[in-house]
TrEMBL record:
<feature type="domain" description="NADPH-dependent FMN reductase-like">
    <location>
        <begin position="3"/>
        <end position="150"/>
    </location>
</feature>
<dbReference type="InterPro" id="IPR023932">
    <property type="entry name" value="CE1759_FMN_reduct"/>
</dbReference>
<keyword id="KW-0288">FMN</keyword>
<dbReference type="Pfam" id="PF03358">
    <property type="entry name" value="FMN_red"/>
</dbReference>
<protein>
    <submittedName>
        <fullName>FMN reductase</fullName>
    </submittedName>
</protein>
<keyword id="KW-0560">Oxidoreductase</keyword>
<dbReference type="InterPro" id="IPR051814">
    <property type="entry name" value="NAD(P)H-dep_FMN_reductase"/>
</dbReference>
<keyword id="KW-0285">Flavoprotein</keyword>
<dbReference type="InterPro" id="IPR005025">
    <property type="entry name" value="FMN_Rdtase-like_dom"/>
</dbReference>
<dbReference type="InterPro" id="IPR029039">
    <property type="entry name" value="Flavoprotein-like_sf"/>
</dbReference>
Length: 204
């Protein structure tokens, strides 16, 4: 499982949220007898590589390794800070350089952080449509953490959402092992239309 976080601070609330979501998913899978390793990719460390790939048209070795990790993972947690009512440019740019089929069928949990709960709509108006376009398999519960959610008054509700979303991701990973890999193999087995027609004609 891979967690992608686009927070800029060190540590960032996006990274903290990603870690807690990963722990919840891992606990759910552990309860089902599955041990899962979690790799966290902090896009802050790849910012120059991502910009270079956008300009040059191909990723360098460091970014290629990160992209391969996402494409090969059995599940994805994607967390972005919300700026001006949408995901960050760094977050979007990373998924822009990912292969267009890289997330097909992949169990995915989306989450975001922001200064106010008013930004929570960005999950359904920005992140969910983007990952739907990439044909990811998005779990029903998305998690938004505003500044007040980290205080004692809001932490109980945040913990509940984290546990629910993590459990949904864990269940989906358990139900669809290596889904993305299987789907790519299926595409490789597809015979082009022209080739099938030629085979039919030759048999007449």
């Amino acid at each position: 499982m891979v967690a992608v976080t686009a927070g800029l601070g060190q540590p960032s609330t996006a990274r903290i949220l990603a870690d807690r979501l990963a722990d919840a998913a891992r606990a759910r899978l552990g309860a089902q007898g599955r041990q899962v390793l979690v790799e966290v990719l902090e896009l802050r460390d790849l910012a120059l590589d991502i910009a270079g790939a956008m300009v040059a048209g191909f990723p360098g070795a460091k970014l290629r390794a990160a992209l391969d990790a996402v494409e090969g993972a059995d599940g994805l947690i994607a967390v972005s800070p919300i700026y001006t009512a949408s995901y960050s440019g760094l977050f979007k740019s990373f998924f822009d350089v990912l292969d267009k089929d890289g997330l097909t069928g992949k169990p995915t949990l989306i989450a975001a952080t922001g200064g106010t709960a008013r930004h929570s709509l960005a999950l359904d108006h920005a992140l969910r449509p983007m990952f739907a376009y990439l044909r990811a398999f998005i779990v029903p519960t998305a998690v938004f953490a505003a500044s007040e959610d980290w205080a004692s008054a809001g932490e109980s509700s945040l913990n509940e959402r984290i546990e629910r979303a993590g459990s949904e991701l864990g269940d989906l990973i358990a139900a669809t092992p290596a889904a993305a890999g299987r789907r790519r193999e299926e595409f490789e087995d597809v015979v082009p239309f022209e080739q099938r027609m030629a085979a039919l004609r030759s048999g007449i």
